[in-house]
Specification:
The radius of gyration is 18 Å and the shape is globular. The relative contact order is 0.17. Helix content is 49%, strand content 16%. It is built from eleven helices and ten strands. Helix 2 (27-40) links the parallel strand 1 and strand 2 (44-48). An eight-stranded parallel beta barrel has the order 1-2-3-4-5-7-9-10, surrounded by ten helices. A two-stranded parallel sheet has the order 6-8. The model is unreliable at 137-147 (pLDDT under 50). It has one domain (5-285): TIM Barrel, CATH 3.20.20.70. The longest helix has 23 residues, at 255-277. By secondary structure, it is of the alpha/beta class.
């Protein structure tokens, strides 16, 4: 079933787990996430950043939305890191059930103003909206944006932003970065900051850039109050490494024989993340 992000995360918040939001990009990754979600009876979010949306083309989502509507598990289709009203509008027109408007690098009042405009537009169409305050880091392997120096989310701004924009979910910056971390880089989540934010936040909280943080930190973050964890690099790395291995071993070129093993390996990573976030088997909560 295809549902909106607001409904997806409301249940996660009430039942104290987080839902994995996977940047799926193409048919193979879409299949890996949906098929593993169905096999394990787990809710999941498929998401596409604007560059991925453009690569897939709007017509691709006619298939994606049909596949998701026909599924027996709760699924949401989300635009990740939309930067403009136009980005969000294109996703809404393509059938997305939620959009993110990322004005985090704008001055706070401008971020609020842009986010409020998107909320008014999206809510009129029955579409949920994720906003962001604070700025997440970015590594060279990411095309989703970010900054060199993280600006941590200020708990005092959370209430004002949520009330002033009407967002349905809020992405926060507590020490992660997009992309794969370079060798020697030791990430650390600011879990005490998360506790402070969770105490004042009235909407579900979102963690971006969680691919390379230690599992125990991610698990603790979900227990404290994260309801959505974005995963992109991990599943793509698994898929392409497996594909390269099959290519090296077989020198094949038939897609079913090439993609089949890569899909199977990617599904393992998807399941590991679902278990880490506490959402595995939770479809019956919806």
């Amino acid at each position: 079933m295809l549902i909106c992000l607001k409904d997806m995360l409301a249940t996660a918040k009430n039942e104290h787990f987080a839902v994995g939001a996977f940047n799926t990009t193409d048919l193979n990754l879409v299949r890996a996430v949906i098929e593993e979600a169905e096999a394990t009876k787990t809710p999941a979010i498929l998401q596409f950043a604007p560059g991925e949306f453009n690569f897939a083309t709007p017509e691709f989502f006619a298939y994606v939305t049909l596949r998701m509507r026909n599924s027996d598990v709760p699924l949401a289709l989300h635009l990740d890191h939309g930067k403009t009203i136009e980005d969000c509008l294109r996703a809404i027109q393509a059938g997305f059930t939620s959009v993110m408007i990322d004005g985090s690098q704008l001055p706070f009042e401008e971020n609020m103003r842009l986010t409020r405009q998107v909320v008014e537009l999206a809510h009129a169409c029955g579409v949920s909206v994720e906003g962001e305050i604070g700025t997440i880091g970015a590594m060279s392997t990411s095309d989703e944006g970010g900054v060199e120096n993280i600006t941590y989310t200020n708990p005092e701004e959370v209430v004002k932003f949520v009330e002033g924009t009407g967002v349905d979910a809020l992405a926060i910056a507590i020490g992660t970065a997009h992309g794969l971390y370079p060798k020697g880089f030791v990430p650390k989540l600011q879990l005490e900051l998360l506790k402070q934010i969770n105490q004042v936040a009235s909407v579900p909280l979102v963690l971006h850039g969680g691919s390379d943080n230690p599992d125990e930190e991610i698990r603790q973050a979900c227990a404290i109050g994260i309801q959505k964890v974005n995963i992109s690099s991990d599943i793509k790395q698994t898929f392409f490494r497996s594909l390269q291995c099959v290519l090296n071993e077989t020198h094949g070129f038939l897609p079913p024989k090439m993609y089949g093993p890569a899909l199977a390996e990617t599904r393992k990573t998807v399941r590991e993340k679902m278990e880490l976030f506490g959402s595995l088997g939770k479809a019956d909560q919806y």
